[in-house]
Amino acid sequence: MPSWIAAVVVLSVFLPSGCASHAGVAVDSGFAKPEETAITVAAIPSNDLAGLYIAQDDGLFASRGLHVTIEKIASSQAVIVAQLKGQVDISAGSYVAYISAQAAGARFRILAEASTLKPGTRMLVTTGASRIISIAGLVGQKIGVNGTNSIGTLLISALLEEHGVSPKKVDFITDSKGFPAMPGQLQTGNWGSAFLAEPYATIAEEDYGDRELVDLDQGATENFPIDGYVATQAWAEKYPKTAAAFVSAIQQGQTIAETQPLVVQAAMAKSDDLPSQVTAVMALPGFPTGAVAVQNIQRVADVMLEFGVLSGEYRAEVAKGTLIRSMLG
Predict the structure, then answer these.
(1) Over 88-150, what HEC string results?
(2) For residue range 33-72, what is the model confidence (pLDDT) as tens digits?
(3) Is-cis flag, bond preceding 225, omega within 30?
(4) Cα four-point dihedral sign 297, 300, 306, 309
(5) Residue 203: what are its φ and ψ, rounded to 5°?
(6) Nearest partner of 158 among 99, 216, 77, judged by Cα
(7) What is 122-221's CATH number?
(8) Which of 145, 152, 153, 210 could form an S-S bond across to 204 if both were Cys, CB 3.0 to 4.6 Å?
(9) What is the mean pLDDT of residues 83-93?
(10) Nearest-angstrom CA–CA distance, 58 and 71
(11) How many degrees, rounded to 5, is the angle at CA 118 between CA 48 and CA 291?
């Protein structure tokens, strides 16, 4: 197991007979055989990737001839180097880290959209005893995030700017263990607040009595595109049938996630070993389907540039849309 991986979840699914057999699972012969049948997907543990877990649990990958290993990571940044080295086939996480890497010269391909921001799905949380009761109260405070220059720092920076507070007046602290460890870390008193995704915001409230300071689904980042499924361009060009099979399964998983919240609850309970009192009340994001929409990803680049997560030297590329189009093939 690579040292940068926090945990590995390998889910084997066996479908009813009736299709051609492949490696012990039923394969729908209507799909083109993938060039690479065993792939690794690195994923941030959050509700945003429910489409991935549903596709695994419901045998949607297996039906297309794919055996998928899901490796949990703390943030997209934690896996980019390994992905460029070919140690990971596909990553499921925030667009922010990949747009930054693309601007710096890496070459990635966004295969499918995973999630969009909805109320309650990304928030700043404080302890129940905290004296911080407003956005202004964050000035001079440490804010725990799961990645430096990540979707968390972007959403928070946008929020602060819109409320007249410079992001330079807070101190972003990255927790290398990511969302699962952050509710507990908040209790030590080293941070004034923590940036949490669901289901970890609900866990913080249920297990520790923490409270929501502010919901980040507002202003410039309302309904904001959050996560996607990304491969290197080299991988996508080498294994086009594998990429197509993966995207086909994900699209079906996304449709189920968008229309059947109880299935999302069951998938997240299984993937993260969550109790029913958490899954029953956790907020859910939007689950986009269909081809990747350039205007959605362009919106991420625009906000990254506006709030300094992306350097001004890339202003022309962002304005012309060439940076994002280079990621969409």
Answers:
(1) CCEEEEEHHHHHHHHHCCCCEEEEEECCECCCCCEEEEECCCCCCCCHHHHCCCEEEECCCCC
(2) 999 999 999 998 889 999 999 999 999 999 999 999 999 8
(3) no
(4) negative
(5) -60, -40
(6) 216
(7) 3.40.190.10
(8) 210
(9) 92
(10) 18
(11) 60
Residue 11 has pLDDT above 60, yes or no: no
Beta bridge partners of 225: 116
Contact present, 98 and 229 (Cβ < 8 Å) = no
Q: What is the CATH number of domain 7-116+225-325?
A: 3.40.190.10
Neighbour count for residue 166 (Cβ, 10 Å): 10
What are phi and psi for residue 243, nearest 5 degrees?
-60, -40
User: Closest Cα partner for 126 from 116, 115, 117, 137?
Assistant: 137
Nearest to 235 by CA among 62, 43, 86: 86
Residues in contact with 1: Cβ distance below 8 Å, sequence separation at least 6, in sequence order: 8
Query: Where, residue-wise, is CATH 3.40.190.10 in the chain?
Result: 7-116+225-325, 122-221
In this structure, the dihedral spanned by the alpha carbons of residues 224, 230, 236 and 241, taken in order and rounded to 10 degrees, is -80
Residue type, 140: G
Vertex 231, ends 319 and 326: CA angle to 5°?
Answer: 25
Please give the Cα distance from 98 to 106 (Å, whole number).
9
Residue 329, beta-bridge partner list: none
